[in-house]
Amino acid sequence: MKIEFFDPPMCCSTGICGPSVDEKLVKLGEDIAKLKQKGIEVERYMISQQPMKFRENEEVYKLVRENGKVVLPVTAINGKVFKSKEYPTLEEMLTQLGVE
């Protein structure tokens, strides 16, 4: 089981820095830790630092090519796009993976 986050450009790999911290990114960081504790592989790619990862996933590449960066973030579960324009909740990801 693998979850990949295709992130928009951010200040760093987590986006959790600077004077105004985005609480959604803090929650995502907590959710990623919980996913990893359950043995789920999690990868994050930032378009400005790993553009080839966006191209390697055909669905993600097509979404970004046709709609631009407004579709980011995109979440893929086991290689298939699961959600775009916002991060899924932990519950949504676990349900999609069939994990409790």
From TrEMBL:
<dbReference type="Pfam" id="PF06953">
    <property type="entry name" value="ArsD"/>
</dbReference>
<dbReference type="GO" id="GO:0045892">
    <property type="term" value="P:negative regulation of DNA-templated transcription"/>
</dbReference>
<protein>
    <submittedName>
        <fullName>Arsenite efflux transporter metallochaperone ArsD</fullName>
    </submittedName>
</protein>
<dbReference type="GO" id="GO:0003677">
    <property type="term" value="F:DNA binding"/>
</dbReference>
<dbReference type="InterPro" id="IPR010712">
    <property type="entry name" value="Arsenical-R_ArsD"/>
</dbReference>
<dbReference type="GO" id="GO:0046685">
    <property type="term" value="P:response to arsenic-containing substance"/>
</dbReference>
